[in-house]
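for the writeup, i need someone to sanity check this before i put it in the appendix. the sequnce is what the collaborator sent (i think, or maybe the updated version? ugh). structure was predicted straight from it, no edits. if anything looks off just tell me and ill rerun, i have time this weekend
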Amino acid sequence: MAFDFYKKISGKCGEDAACLYLKKNKYRIIERNHRNKCGEIDIIASKGEDLVFVEVKTRRSEKFGTPAEAITYYKKRNFVNTARWYLMNNPTEMNIRFDVIEVFGTFTGETFETENINHYEQVFQEI
């Protein structure tokens, strides 16, 4: 139970850090934790002519591989289907992109210390 609590808190803190990173890099956050019948998208943002669907993965280390490596084929498929559902209800002429942001950090009980952020653009095409 304590592990689940830590995972949930560190995940939210990682998403907060990813949003700050995106804002510093001139992205506009449109929505966080978008849910529909297909799944969830951590962050929907825009920059220029791009509408960006972002999956955030938070880890303490690469001990068990990089955070981006934790995204399976099925997660990608659900992610794309969730984006498609979003776009059916929010049509746009913008370019669509699927990004992953890895956040490395530690939740100390009171604060989340971000150590590093890696942003991978257009990590996969529609499946």
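The helical segments are 2-24, 73-89. Residues 32 and 43 are 5 Å apart (CA to CA).
thx in advance!!
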